[in-house]
Amino acid sequence: MTELLYSPLLRRTVRALHLSSVIRRAAYVAATRGQGFIRVTKAGVVAKFVTPTPENWRAVDSLCSKEPLLEPLLELIGDNDVVYDVGAHHGVYSVFAAHRGARVFAFEPNPACHAPFRANVDINRLDPAITLASVALSDTSGTMMLHQGEGVGVLDAVAADTGRGSAVPVSLVRGDVYAKQQGWPAPTVLKIDVEGYESAVLDGFGDLLSHVRVVLCEIHPHLLLPNETPDTILRRITDAGLAISASGSYQDIHFTQYVLAVRQ
User: Fold this and answer.
1) Would you say 95 and 47 are in contact if contact means Cβ atoms under 8 Å apart?
2) Which of these, 99, 131, 100, lies nearest to 114 by C-alpha position?
3) Are strands 103-107 and 130-133 parallel, antiparallel or unpaired?
4) Distance CA 11, CA 215 (A)
5) Structurally, what CATH architecture does the domain formed by 67-263 represent?
6) Whether 61 contacts 71, CB under 8 Å
7) How far apart are CA 1 and CA 215, in angstroms?
8) pLDDT one-digit tens code per residue, 187-210
9) How many CB atoms lie within 10 A of CB 133?
């Protein structure tokens, strides 16, 4: 049912009639039934997500409803996998991956996401299967401003509009460097959703990419770093020895592309 809420035509109509808040509140009440959480089933796994407000509910429900390759990815994850969830947001992918038996290392620099993320880990009783790192992965180390928009954070290097909400400084670190510093195992599954910063994240994994057998990458053509295109991002993935096995897209205000790649 909730897939209908993310129909581009319906969303444009609702915005034009200034009914967004009314529709969202009604959908929230119907979905949560006053419980403060929702149950979602994907790839045979039932997970709970804490939804104390319409905003929390929408952040989780939109991911579960609109992202076309969530379930195909989960079907490829098993007990022996090490999942790096880069751009973990409220933990939807992390929670489902851990329920599939994987060890999950999640990266989310946006401080507004940390409390919902931990609440979702707790309600699913998945501690210590999931570890959260509050850093932004990149191809270098340093700091950068993160602009907090409507439920997502966009790094300064790719922010199309630096007026997107308040901005906070976040730490940047290469994925290969951070994994070595923390003593973490190399990833076998890599999920990337970083609002245009995909190329820097992939470059920062270096030789660790040779251990990865599955990649799910969300690509935002309107937010890419200078001189990058969706094709240059896909080339990084295929050059690492993975083959594109599935793709999908979602059209809201902007076009978003999803790519699933598997090592042959």
Assistant:
1) yes
2) 131
3) parallel
4) 30
5) 3-Layer(aba) Sandwich (3.40)
6) no
7) 29
8) 999 999 998 999 999 999 999 999
9) 21
So what's the pLDDT on residue 148?
Answer: 81
- Chain segment 90-114, per-residue pLDDT in tens: 999 999 999 999 999 999 999 999 9
Q: How does 186-205 read in b/e, with b if 16+ C-beta sit within 10 Å?
A: bbbbbbbbbbbbbbbbbbbb
Average pLDDT score over residue span 139-155: 84
Place of tokens 């599954």: 189
pLDDT digits (tens, 9 = 90+) for 3-35: 555 555 555 554 555 445 666 667 777 777 778
Look up the pTM and report it: 0.87
Distance between CA atoms of residues 35 and 38, nearest Å: 8
Q: What is the DSSP letter of 124?
A: T
Dihedral Cα 135, 140, 141, 144, nearest 10 deg: -70
Are 146 and 113 a contacting pair, CB within 8 Å?
no
Q: Residue 182 to residues 133, 185, 205: CA-CA distances in angstroms?
A: 10, 9, 14
d(CA 181, CA 120): 27
Q: Give 264's contacts (C-beta < 8 A, 6+ positions apart).
A: 241, 242, 243
C-alpha distance across the termini of the chain, in Å: 36
How far, in Å, CA of 123 to CA of 100, rounded? 16
Residue ranges covered by each domain of the chain? 67-263
Query: Reduced to 3 states, what is the DSSP secondary structure of residue 255?
Result: strand
Express each pLDDT in 81-93 by its tens digit: 999 999 999 999 9
pLDDT tens digits for range 164-193:
568 899 999 999 999 999 999 999 999 999
